[in-house]
Write a structure and sequence with these properties.
Two copies of one chain form a homodimer. Chain A is of the alpha/beta class and 397 residues long. Chain A contains eleven helices and 15 strands. In chain A, α1 packs across α3. At the A-B interface, α1, α2, β12, α8 and α10 of A face α1, α2, β12, α8 and α10 of B. Chain B binds a DNA duplex (30 and 30 nucleotides) through α1 and α3.
Chain lengths: 397, 397
DNA sequence: GCACTTTCGCAACAGCGTTGCCAAAGTGGA
DNA sequence: TCCACTTTGGCAACGCTGTTGCGAAAGTGC
């Protein structure tokens, strides 16, 4: 990913040599330390929200000295990313000055390309959705048509910023870039699509570079479930922060986004999270993937027959396998099918996980199951976070 | 983990403040940069083995400048961890000086506590086993007896070092510590056992602290499968280095150790890798864990009936689920049952994975399946790596 | 009104990797 | 045999990082 534009480079400092050559482990230099700590502080500022956070709290949370925090925050204030926001009550001495993030200092566009729908949002540093567009879309209409639809929508959501708008989006000073999330296998590292399920004409298409060139800003591409998981990791469930959780998406298909120790796990081939074709019934009914007894077939079959309880139970068994394998903290459910009967799925999956936990003894207790917040916008918001998260020290994207 | 003894503290430098307070993300200071880069260089030295590696190669691989590498290696040489080892052929100028690790500069003890057997090894910095002891063991014989057996064996393997041996092991200058691996649920972070399967009397026993006090050196405790995975990640399969793989252990039970992006994934409760109780047959035969249709029941049942091919197939299906979920690079098989018919299991599991890969298209190709090297010593060697790996920049342990 | 506590910035500092420069140690052509 | 050239790698000065020492600012409480 190339993020060398001047606008939102919080880490202006020196121009360091390329930190890593050839994929090996990277040596750390001082510029890296600086950007790491700056990102850490920015992240804490964001998490503090409107309430803000004092310099000393930042020092305690990061392990840095108060003086280092003062220097870092001074830079951030000079660059417009942070600002003072009142002061706390005194505890016998000088009251702490509260700092807060300036959300308008940075924005990112997030686009969710679904099979029949396009949803584009503009998100600020805080994660707040500033603008949104929705349109019908035919993923099979060809690259040119889809690209144009995405660009038009992106221009639309950015228009309100009034920061000067030229050919692409490159005139928008605070814009970090555009994140795109879509189904189907793809290569996240290079931003190249593989055979998007049902649309073979996309195979090998370099979506990231095409978009970046067309819009004149950095672009990132990821699977829809990964984007959703990232969005939820950043500002979603409170207890999911920094931990591990799975986002299970039940819509036209069944997939998962995995967050392990606070960052999205994609695997070397962006193949992780293939949850739907997990086999849970040996020699079971044939799935369109060629396997037998996949969760997807069993679960969606039950849905089609109207047996929501059975669908939830099957989903729960597969979720239980996942929880056991990865020792996950929370399971979040999303997607259109879940949205149609949220309580039933939460209850059904929860029961299976609860029974499993009870059998295994008390250690750790049962894994909570919840409906993922943000509803139909999860993926689009997460796509925007593909650009924003790195600013805040998330290793993703 | 407490590793403040002077002997093998490669990072002698300044005494930095505690880097992190309260479990949050840690701010980086200069001492951290130094130890990070030092560990990186040490790791590359170890991977280079007897052939050694030149300063400039180190610079290229780490992304550091040659001068920085020179400084770091000068320190390492002064401390006895590295030494010059000849020189390369000239390519038109001054020939490169080859550096190599001095294996004898550090040792670690690794202990594998199995239900009926104790195996203790002494490993040097290179990962080479310097000494080994094996003894019968009854895990149910009570804490005192087991502790004494471990300590006696540890003293035994260390005796040959002739570095002065007092009450415990604290007199051995080059000894980093003792790593212990055993089955059953436990808390890796605190080194406390939970209900070791079949031996309820161990529940809550603080094994790590008990051993550390008794021996006078740092101790680390982990699950046997995690230790094996770490050992394989460090010096095992070549193509597993830095990547992701699963070690599947088929013995009296069925478990897995997961390595994701080069480091062992344990989960917050050290619960990850519960592979055996993955359900792959809805409403299948009852497992002793209370679930129905677990791989363990199906697989071990087939083994008991002498149907090795069926056992391998079932194992392959479960491995396929795991591979799909995590996008893993390699599957390594180990354990007594596998050792009895290695080719059959490799073939059987490989066929299932191959069929799965073929159905999903060409992207990435099929995941290789191999027998884990090192045989019955994997776990003990991995246990020693619990102490050594951190020296080389592995985030584990 | 004064002593005390707490926050936080300025200035000096130590330590990290980096840069500039040069000696060392080879090769290869004249 | 000599000399120009290339490449390695150490020494010294440097810039930048977070850290430490100290003092001003801004409250509380007797």
């Amino acid at each position: 990913m190339d993020r060398t534009r001047e606008t939102v480079k919080a880490t202006a400092g020196t121009a360091p040599r390329p930190a890593t050559r050839g994929g090996g482990p990277a040596g750390a230099n001082l510029g890296l330390v600086r950007s790491h700590n700056t990102a850490l502080v920015l992240g804490l500022l964001r998490d503090a929200g409107a309430e803000g956070i004092s310099r000393l709290e930042l020092a305690e949370r990061t392990g840095l000295t108060p003086q280092a925090v003062s220097k870092i925050t001074a830079r951030l204030r000079a660059e417009g990313f942070a600002a003072e926001a009142g002061r706390r009550a005194s505890t016998g001495g000088k009251p702490r000055t509260v700092l807060r993030l300036v959300p308008e200092a940075g924005h990112a566009v997030g686009a969710h390309l679904d099979r029949d729908e396009l949803r584009v949002v503009l998100v600020d540093l805080d994660g707040t959705v500033v603008a949104e567009r929705r349109a019908d879309l035919d993923l099979g209409a060809g690259a040119e048509a889809v690209l144009e639809a995405v660009c038009a929508a992106a221009r639309g959501v950015v228009a309100g910023l009034d920061e000067g708008l030229g050919e692409g989006l490159s005139g928008v000073r605070s814009l970090v870039g555009v994140g795109v999330a879509l189904p189907g296998p793809l290569d996240h590292a290079h931003g190249v699509l593989h055979r998007v399920t049902g649309f073979p004409e996309w195979d090998g298409f370099p979506l990231r570079d095409a978009l970046a060139e067309r819009l004149g800003v950095p672009a990132v591409v990821d699977k829809d479930t990964n984007a959703a998981a990232l969005g939820l990791a950043v500002g979603g469930a409170e207890d999911a922060a920094g931990g591990s959780f799975a986002y299970l998406h039940l819509g036209t298909g069944l997939g998962a986004g995995l967050v392990i120790d606070g960052s999205v796990h994609r695997g070397a081939r962006t193949g992780a999270g293939e949850f739907g074709h997990q086999v849970i019934q040996l020699d079971g009914p044939l799935c369109e993937c060629g396997n037998r007894g996949c969760v997807e077939v069993l679960c969606l079959g039950a849905v089609a027959r109207g047996e929501v309880a059975e669908a939830a139970r099957v989903l729960g068994v597969a979720a239980g396998n996942l929880v056991g394998l990865l020792d996950i903290d929370v399971v979040l459910l999303g997607g259109r099918t879940v949205a149609a009967a949220p309580e039933a799925y939460v209850r059904g999956v929860g029961e299976v996980l609860g029974a499993r936990a009870r059998r295994e003894g008390t250690s750790g207790g049962t894994v909570p199951v919840r409906v993922a917040p943000r509803g139909e916008r999860v993926v689009a918001e997460g796509a925007a976070q593909l650009l924003l998260a790195p600013l805040f020290g998330r290793g993703d994207a």
